[in-house]
Amino acid sequence: MGKAKEMEANTENINPNVKDADYLLWQRYKTTQDQMIKEELIIKYAPFVKYIAGRIAMNLPSNVEYDDLVGYGIFGLIDAIEKFQPNRQVKFKTYAQTRIRGSIFDELRVLDWAPRSVRQKARQLEKAFIELENRIGRPATDEEISEEMGIGLTELYKLYNETRGSVLMSLDEVCYEDESNTTRINFIEDEKTPTPHAKVEEDEMRGILAGAIGNLSERERLVVTLYYYEELTLKEIGEVLGVSDSRVSQLHTKAVLRLRGKLSKYQKDSSG
Prior knowledge:
By secondary structure, the protein is mainly α. It has helices at 3-10, 21-32, 35-57, 66-83, 92-111, 116-136, 142-149, 153-163, 196-214, 218-228, 234-241, 245-271, and strands at 174-176, 182-183.
């Protein structure tokens, strides 16, 4: 089990059906609005905020400070604590996660952390990956990508760092400012009731993605595994691989650009 999973496991979920100490603590706070109890809850769930901030930081430019993300997330945690209803059939961490992430993303949007120019560079990188790798039939090296784009390795590495934030999209982002504040996640079909056509497409997409991951370089594949399956943070992956945080970010960005290119090609081919 990774360190991040241990951190998450140590932050206990609130089970409204169990009249334990945590449940009683919530009831006391909701009844009295005691600020000392509120502070106790904030301290209890601060590690969960740090966990979420660490996951988000993996995809952001180096000029975005991790401590700032934690600070933004704490505002979301406080909001969740104030609005949480312990008698409802939902765990607090499940309830709070959306608000913590949403609070972080709200602040990032204000900072304009991924301007249009950065997204344009990301599309250029993605195009270079897919066109070159379609020609050579294997994952392209950094040297080959830099030659394909007509730039030096130093500039390519700079592009990786600049565009890593472009691979992040918040499903919590509000699409329509209505009474229900509709978010992107509202447009995702409920997986509990898949249609036969959707099931076929899902299986086919899963196979393509698995094949694309298998074609990544060994280090890129390891970064994807540690990040998405072991749920390690950027710093923890760097410790495993014995490389810097910046190098892990480059590997992750390259892997995502390759995978996104493969999937976009499949979507174009299937729609055509």
